[in-house]
Amino acid sequence: MRFRSIAALVALMGLVSAPAGFAAERAIDATKSSISAEFTQIGVPVNAPFKKFSGSVDLDPAKSAEARAHFDIDTASFDIGDDDYNAEVRKPEWFDSAKFPKASFVASGLKPTTPGNFEASGKLSLKGKTVELKVPVTAKTEAGLTTYSGTVSISRKAFAIGGAGWDDTVEDTVKIRFRIAVPAVG
Amino acid sequence: MSADDRYTRPAIALHWLIALMVVGGFAVGLYMTGLKVSPEKLQFYAWHKWSGITVLVLALVRIGWHLSHPVPAPLPGQPLWQLRAAHYTHLALYGLILVIPLSGWLYSSASGYPVVYLGIKALRLPDLVAKNKELATVLKEIHEWLNWTMAALVTVHVCAALKHHLIDRDGTLRRMLPR
Ligand code: HEM
Ligand code: HEM
Q1: Is this prediction's ipTM beyond 0.90?
Q2: Potential cystine with B110: which of A77, B5, B29, B135 (Cβ 3.0-4.6 Å)?
């Protein structure tokens, strides 16, 4: 008797705490997700991952226009694979990780393009600047996991990343590659 | 001295061009690794790789030339040990001018940096191995170790050439010099 009432209470709390209208908000599965940036120096493409990020996707496949997603990325977790370069990229000239520890992307609205493909609109905030982005996304569901993946190009200068002294060495265009995995709906 | 006693012009040109680039690449290699992170450092790395890849191509041409064009016979009157030492040193040097750039290319690939020859994107070379930090550490050691081996051998090689020229006063160095 006592057990059942506790169970009922827990169930009720679960219902109440789920925000109305956000029935399918799912935290990302970081172990199966990846976010990386590819920059180009003297013609050489260098792809490096952000090791730490979190976020959630709130998407009802039936109502994609109302889709929401939110990601926080630790700028200090960018790993070029070498201590000296990792230290460099955290400096004020680049990410300024001490002052701006997080970058965020907030997506609001997903427009279906072709089957399985969407265009997400959202705002990327990085180093105190915010830029509107349209991001092509491919969705795939497999073994209980939905992954949203894609690549989007941004201008590092739009975010004041990298001092002028580097302009002849590191290209302005940086490609962000992402693969976001969340538990499949239902 | 008859024409047969000299190295062919292409053999001479390749020998000195490669020698110059190897010594230059070696010096740049030592210098660049000590620099602090900066655009200049990356530029030196790029030059180092481009010249190293150029050496690799020239070395292949040179080995092809060596195999298809007989080299002049050693000058007479040399002890057998000296002929053997020269033979094996030359063989090792041929091997090193191939293996050193290859080890650098492998190291670059394993570190996750594709080699883009002269910075021209259409001349992006294939990655020889996938990005792998542990492998990169080993390949870096190998690249360094091979370089010090070559530095030692080139020292012996140059001393031998100078001994021929200054002490034996024979034509060994002259037949490798452009006329
Ligand atoms: C003639 C050919 C080459 C020579 C003589 C040469 C020589 C050297 C030397 C002396 C160093 C310094 C080693 C040290 O740290 O003490 C070095 C480092 C290096 N070399 Fe080469 N190299 C050659 C070709 C290449 C090529 C073709 C590549 C890549 C495509 C390459 C990539 C590198 C890199 C990335 C380093 C830095 C290692 C580090 O991080 O410390 N090298 N090389
Ligand atoms: C990195 C530098 C160098 C490399 C890799 C190198 C490599 C070689 C190789 C592989 C040969 C044999 C050529 C053949 O028989 O097909 C050779 C021959 C020769 N090298 Fe070098 N060399 C270098 C620097 C030098 C320098 C600085 C000198 C002179 C001071 C020199 C003097 C000679 C001479 C005189 C020969 C002809 C030997 C003979 O006639 O038997 N080399 N070198």
Answers
A1: no
A2: B135
- Does B33 sit in the ligand 1 pocket, CB within 6 Å? yes
CATH number at residue A155: 2.40.128.110
Looking at the complex, report in whole angstroms how far the Cα of residue B104 sits from the nearest Cα belonging to chain A: 15
Give residue B63's pLDDT.
Answer: 97
B157 CA to centre of ligand 2 in angstroms: 7
**A70 domain residue, yes or no:** yes
Instruction: Please judge whether A165 and B39 are an interchain contact, meaning their C-beta atoms are less than 8 angstroms apart.
Output: yes
Give chain A positions within 8 Å (CB) of B133.
Answer: 81
Residue A1 predicted with pLDDT over 70: no
Q: Hey, whose CA ends up nearest to atom 42 of ligand 1?
A: B104
Instruction: Tell which atom from ligand 2 comes closest to the C-alpha of B86.
Output: 41
**Per-residue pLDDT, A20:** 39
Domain ranges, residue A54: 24-183
Q: What is the DSSP annotation of B69-135?
A: SPPPPPPSS--HHHHHHHHHHHHHHHHHHHHHHHHHHHHHHHTT---BGGG-GGGBPPPSS---HHH
Question: From CA A109, how far away is CA A73, in angstroms rounded?
Answer: 20
How many domains are there within chain A?
1
Specify the pLDDT at position A22: 47
User: Ligand 1 centroid vs B104 CA: distance in angstroms?
Assistant: 5
CATH 2.40.50.140 for the B3-175 domain, yes or no = no
* pTM: predicted TM-score of the whole model, two decimal places: 0.90
Contact between A109 and A121 (Cβ < 8 Å): yes
pLDDT of the residue at A109: 85
